[in-house]
Design the sequence.
């Protein structure tokens, strides 16, 4: 993607910077849009696998901790995995504020009874609106146990619309089924893009249960313009070094990515590295997200 590189000097302001690339604290780089100067808005889009999210054995204090973590990240639109009760997502939205909304798949997804779950979405209605409803990938050849789900969002003012696809790749004692599901994702991408008439911006997020660099991603990354937007992320799990939680975009279509991405280590910042407490109260995965810029008119 040929773009001018610019430096964000203050919220909404970019200045031309020639070939200068500036590393960010959270990872990634500040890369400005080609031919765009002056005021811009920004939106944070992410994913979080929130451990066993429900209202049966997650008390109100835990839901408040989860909401606090989301508020800390600044994420505006979030896809959520491991949702076992949509009411839990509604209660988190209430804690985030009156502008926040939530939606989920109509039923739990997955052919394996012990691992079925809803896919959910949380968003700040002051920043974006959902267009239509949550859709589940038909996966006609049934290659992915928990069929991915997506929702389309449009930023306030209509400057950007995008389809956020969430996937939670299977787990288990063997690696081969995980790799096989990941290799089926290019077809999922194509179906999501085809299903959203007039919008080519697809953002694929999820818990892929394989680390950054695994060869199972090769087919996905071979697609035109495809990149892993959080390539150099640190661990996305609370214990260990796994980088399972990833974000993919095609720069052929989603040219609004600023180059910024981040992972919030709430277990370090809030729980002082008490992994057991962090996993019990919040999750065993960390939220990940990227930043997009928003102009007055979408590029597609």
Sequence:
């Amino acid at each position: 993607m040929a773009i001018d590189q610019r430096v964000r000097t203050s919220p909404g302001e970019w200045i031309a910077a020639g070939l200068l690339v500036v590393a960010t604290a959270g990872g990634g780089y500040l890369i400005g849009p080609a031919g765009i100067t002056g005021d811009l808005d920004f939106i944070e889009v992410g994913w979080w696998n929130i451990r066993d999210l429900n209202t049966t054995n997650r008390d109100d204090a835990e839901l408040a901790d989860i909401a606090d973590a989301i508020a800390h990240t600044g994420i505006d639109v979030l896809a959520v995995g491991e949702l076992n009760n949509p009411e839990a997502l509604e209660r988190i939205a209430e804690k985030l504020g009156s502008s926040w909304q939530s939606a989920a798949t109509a039923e739990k997804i997955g052919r394996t009874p012990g691992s079925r779950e809803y896919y959910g979405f949380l968003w700040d209605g002051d920043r974006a609106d959902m267009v239509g409803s949550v859709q589940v990938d038909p996966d006609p050849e049934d290659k992915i146990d928990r069929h991915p789900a997506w929702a389309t969002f449009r930023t306030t003012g209509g400057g950007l619309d995008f389809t956020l696809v969430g996937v939670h790749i299977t787990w288990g004692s063997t690696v081969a089924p995980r790799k096989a599901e990941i290799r089926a994702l290019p077809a999922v991408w194509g179906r999501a893009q085809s299903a959203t008439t007039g919008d080519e911006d697809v953002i694929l997020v999820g818990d892929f249960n394989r680390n950054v660099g695994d060869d199972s991603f090769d087919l996905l990354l071979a697609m035109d313009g495809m990149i892993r937007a959080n390539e150099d992320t640190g661990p996305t799990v609370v214990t260990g070094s796994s980088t399972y939680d990833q974000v993919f975009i095609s720069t052929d279509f989603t040219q609004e990515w600023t180059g910024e991405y981040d992972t919030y280590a709430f277990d370090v910042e809030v729980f002082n590295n008490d992994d057991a407490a962090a996993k019990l109260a919040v999750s065993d995965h960390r939220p990940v997200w990227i930043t997009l810029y928003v102009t007055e008119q979408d590029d597609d």
Q: What stands out?
A: Confidence is low (pLDDT under 50) at residues 1-31. The chain has seven helices and 15 strands. The radius of gyration is 18 Å. The helical segments are 60-73, 86-96, 176-183, 185-195, 218-221, 266-269, 275-281.
